[in-house]
């Protein structure tokens, strides 16, 4: 082939390639598929707002039994874990000088009584021999002697440590022969992990510093649970509010109680309000100082319209969800009520057979055409049961 022929063949090939590149495609590109969304129906049911807090157990009554008089511990008839009755004598304190003072006061009372009685009789017989003033002075001294005897008798009564209520002994801090000092000390938690006076920790010889309690006593037939409720939840707290309690020691057992009292004032440092729950403890399985997991049932709305919380979004103060109508999504404004994490209450009108996009997505456009897939009703019912 000559050089001219080769050049002509090349030009023809280039023209063919250019013609092929400029010609329209043999078929058009496929249109994008419509997005598929999961939809749910609105449900009717109960929705409840709860609050979980840690709680501390204490005895319904707790008392540290101190000595009112100073002396030596003569005897003590109880120890830790012993159950006692109200009025039972638990310990005796020996104060010899107190009994001597009482005997002296009794003798003085006798003398004052005799003196008053004689002067009164003489004055009644002949008022010229004894003046009324002398009789009145004798009466005053007699009454003073009576008061002194009564005071000492009361002090002698304090040598007996008596149970103020039925309960169990939770601490013993002295042994017979120990010097017991009158006092009442401040309460505090010490290394014995009990609420006792800082100077009353237990040792082999009894008190270390004196002035602390001899025994501590608690009524655990009923218990108080101390909670510290955050400021934003305080408006929901009222007497009779239901509470459910669980303990790590009893994982398969639930305890029920109600709010019995609350401080009606917040702690300035923590902005929390002390709230107390009473629970029965007839089998004495629970003890003071145990840790409780408490769930407060703050408020419950019955037979309301509810939708999955994921289906609702909030922009500013306005809430929205997507409804599917005629195969297209419609962004719809709604008003909401309670939320419990899984469900949100809808307080505005919502058609019973509405189809709601289960998860609100910013990728959807208002009016966009979509395909739908209904969420399994059994799954939804199970989720609703868990949420309630």
What is the number of beta strands?
Answer: 22
Q: Round the Cα radius of gyration to an integer and report it.
A: 43 Å
The strands making up the biggest β-sheet line up spatially as 2-11-14-13-12-15
**Given this structure, which CATH class of the largest domain is correct?**
Mainly Beta
For the termini, the CA-CA separation is 92 Å
Shape: elongated
Q: By CATH's scheme, which homologous superfamily of the largest domain applies?
A: Efflux pump adaptor protein, beta barrel domain
Q: Which stretches are poorly predicted, pLDDT < 50 over at least 5 residues?
A: 185-209, 377-388
Give the domain tally: 3
Give the strand content: 35-45%
Query: What name is given to the CATH topology of the largest domain?
Result: Elongation Factor Tu (Ef-tu), domain 3
Order of helices and strands: HEEEEEHHEEEEEEEEEEEEEEEEEH
The name of the CATH architecture of the largest domain is Beta Barrel
Query: Count of DSSP helices?
Result: 4
Give the proportion of residues in helices.
Answer: 10-25%
Q: Which structural category fits the helices and strands? A: alpha+beta
Mean pLDDT: 82
**What is the makeup of the main sheet?**
6 strands, antiparallel, barrel
Descriptive key words:
single chain; 388 residues; alpha+beta; Elongation Factor Tu (Ef-tu), domain 3; OB fold (Dihydrolipoamide Acetyltransferase, E2P); Helix Hairpins; 3 domains; 6-stranded antiparallel beta barrel; 4-stranded antiparallel β-sheet; 22 strands; elongated
